[in-house]
Amino acid sequence: MNQVAHEKHSNIQRALDYLRDNRPLRAEEVCRDFLNRNPGCTDHIRLLSLALMKQNRATKAEEQLRFALSLDPDFPQLYEDLGSALAMQSKFEEAISEFEKAIRLQPSLPLAHKKLGQALAAIGKGSEADDAFQEYVANDPERSAIVKGVEFRQGGKNDEAIKAFRKVLKENPQNVNAMRHLAVSYWHGEKRLEDAEALLRRATQITPQFSGAWQTLGALLMEMNKYLDAITAYTKATELEEKNADAWAGLGNAHARAMNPEEAARAFERSIAIDGDAPGILSAYGWELKTLGNQAEALKAYRRAIKVRPRYGPAYWNMANLKIFKFENKEIETMLEQVKREDLSENEDIHFRFSLGKAMEDKKDYDQAWHFYHTGNQQQRMTVEYEMVEFENRLNAIKNVFNATLLTDRSDIGYEAPDPIFIVGLPRSGSTLVEQILASHSQVEGTAELPVLGKIAESIGRYRKGGNRYPEAVTKLRNKDLRAYGKQYIEESQRYRTTEKPFFTDKLPNNFPLMGFAHLILPNAKVINARRHPFDTCLGAYKQLFGQGQNFTYDMLELAHYYRQYDALMKHWHEVLPGKILDVHYEETVTDLENQVKQILEHCGLPFEESCVHFHETERAVKTASSEQVRQPIYTGALGKWRRYDKHLSLWKEYLSYIVDDLPAASRNAGL
User: Using CA atoms, how far apart are residues 661 and 519, in angstroms rounded to an integer?
Assistant: First the structure.
């Protein structure tokens, strides 16, 4: 090989390496440097055009490719690439002509038939597009087998699909496309999530530039609640395909679930800039704006989603969920018309009903409001799973394990860190208000509803002999195990923190069954139980359409039963952990704020700071339905709201009256 040929080969390899690493600017530099000395090298011109297309500079790529074709008019790949550059500019008619030229020169070009089919489909030539796609598939037996497997899966024959993909991988273990489709079949069919994850990670190792595998991996990791890993996967997908709206939306969702609202909003903005007609993404973007306190822009996003799709109920519900927002009359009329439609999806109808409940409540038409809330709950209950006997048995098991003897004998052996302040209770009981008060203190960082404690508890006993799981497995833990779990909690919680403040809140109301375990692993942690009149608590939950979880809230009896179990367990914790938990009643906080703030801070070992009384001035992201309310000065308008619906609440009165009798006077008499 002479020197020029050697230099050409070396430059081509460098440019290809940069393209594979998604560094098109560096690939462009390499190509231009070589072309300055060898301007007639069509191979380098072609690579330069690919680097330009990677940067979305399709017009410049087109210029380079037309020049290359003037030098070498029989180079089929140049026609294919020119077709791609034209398609990027939506010049589909011209692109089709170039793809056809490429195929005439080399019928076996692996992707030209597929690109031709996509261009034909873009201009509405469906049957011709199908022919092109079939030719694309027929040219590769492995590709044909994968397409057949996808057809099996789409037809509900998941076992046959798995066999088809496995057969491809048996013959070619490096086929990353088969890996991806097998992973999807494991995920959606057999629920073998770990196997699906392993396949997708293997695919991305073999072909790091396989954007589709990264995107599928991100979606799978989201389902597995591995939000930080999902962020990594989606980030890689967006780096590989900067114009992929779905990848940016996935990244936004991952950041949202990982409680990074600023990053989530930025990712959704990128997605919307590419495709502004996706109502779900517009609605998700609005939610993050609301979290950040930007209600005006959130409303714009929600209303834009409705403009795109008038029957999109979730956007209406997200507006209702702003709490201090009121619908315009025209919007109410539109919703009333929508619920009359027979072609609404169940999900859309449910969202409209909860939204109308809020709208009618604001109009003080409480009977109509109850009608829509109640029918919305009845429909939503049919879509979720909840077994109240199973829940009761679980709490009874927790009480049996975490008895006074266990908690006394092992009270000071956990990890000594005093950092966490657990805020527990039930949804809609004022926990966000307590969190905002504490987060306004100079020594306390407000985080969010951290999934860490429950994750650790559920992991106990998973790999131990004998089959015992949490809570029974706790009795078998050694002292050093408890310390290790406490340290693990602190380390994992650190991933959700952004400051060096010595204390932080963990406001996950549903952590209340875990307070015995929390005491064993973190004996110096503080606990606050946010309480509210049970009728207001249950009503607040019944009026809320939760994004996920809280499946007990969609039936009046199940709600009352859940509240009774919660009340009984909290009484147990007070008995076996005297002084550990401070009950903070919402009604007392609202009517006697300064004294309640002092009590909260004293319980947490914190000096009094005036900023905690002026909590509404604290700027921070709040990710709950109460986000707008805690940005306002204290108000009494939410006290005793249950009285407006009094005639509908006989079941709760029957089941919960004994709890009401034990409430402090401020709670019992609220709203009178």
Answer: 30
Residues 6+ apart with CB under 8 A from 557: 388, 651, 655
Q: 310 and 337 in contact (C-beta within 8 Å)?
A: no
- Top pLDDT among 25 and 103 is at 25
| Predicted pLDDT of residue 620 | 45
Instruction: Delineate the domains of the chain, giving CATH numbers in brackets.
Output: 3-141 (1.25.40.10), 398-668 (3.40.50.300)
Is the separation of the CB atoms in 659 and 535 below 8 Å?
no
Chain-centroid distance of CA 516 in Å reads 29
3-state secondary structure 147-168: HHHHHHHHCCCHHHHHHHHHHH
First-to-last CA distance in the chain? Answer: 95
- Please state, as a whole number, how many other Cβ atoms lie within 10 Å of the Cβ of residue 206: 14
**Long-range pairs of 82-86 with CB within 8 A, sequence gap ≥ 24:** 83/112, 83/115, 83/116, 83/119, 84/53, 84/115, 85/49, 85/53, 85/58, 85/59, 85/61, 86/58, 86/62
Q: Is the dihedral of CA 420, 421, 426, 431 positive or negative?
A: negative
CA 70 to chain CA centroid, nearest Å? 51
- At 351 the pLDDT is 94
- Please state, in angstroms and as integers, the Cα–Cα distance from residue 561 to each residue in 29, 567, 654, following that order: 69, 10, 11
Does a cis peptide bond (omega within 30 degrees of 0) precede residue 633?
no
Burial degree of 582 (CB within 10 A; 0-12, 13-18, 19+): middle
Task: Specify the amino acid at residue 157.
Answer: K
Alpha carbon distance 671, 641 (integer Å): 7
pLDDT tens digit string along 227-286?
A: 889 999 999 999 988 888 999 999 999 999 888 889 999 999 999 999 888 899 999 999
C-alpha span between 131 and 128 (Å, rounded): 5
CA distance 470 to 458: 6
Q: What angle do CA 618, 624, 627 make, to 5 degrees?
A: 40
Nearest CA to 220 out of 269, 276, 182, 175 is that of 182
Give yes or no for residue 589 having a pLDDT over 90: yes
The pLDDT value recorded for residue 229 is 93
Please give the residue that has the higher pLDDT: either 552 or 616: 552
- To the question of pTM greater than 0.70 for the whole model, the response is yes
Q: How far apart are CA 172 and CA 58, in angstroms?
A: 35
Q: What is the dihedral of CA 489, 490, 495, 498, to 10 degrees?
A: 150
Pinpoint the alpha helices (H) of 123-257.
126-138, 141-154, 158-171, 176-185, 193-206, 211-223, 227-240, 245-257
Half-sphere exposure of 328 (CA within 13 A, CB side): 5
Residue type, 608: F
Helix (H, G, I), strand (E, B) or coil at 521: helix
84, 57 in Cβ contact below 8 A?
no
- What average pLDDT does the chain have? 89
Q: Output the six-digit token pair for 207.
A: 């072909």
Q: Which one-letter amino acid corresponds to residue 496? A: Y
- C-beta of residue 611 within 8 angstroms of C-beta of residue 441: yes
d(CA 150, CA 162): 9
Given a cut of 80, whether residue 624 has pLDDT beyond it is no
Q: What span, in angstroms and rounded, lies between the C-alpha atoms of 368 and 356? A: 9
CB half-sphere exposure, 294, CA atoms < 13 A: 14
The Cα-based distances of 626 to 478, 540, 631 in angstroms read 41, 11, 9
Please state, in angstroms and as integers, the Cα–Cα distance from residue 368 to each residue in 40, 196, 315, following that order: 77, 48, 21
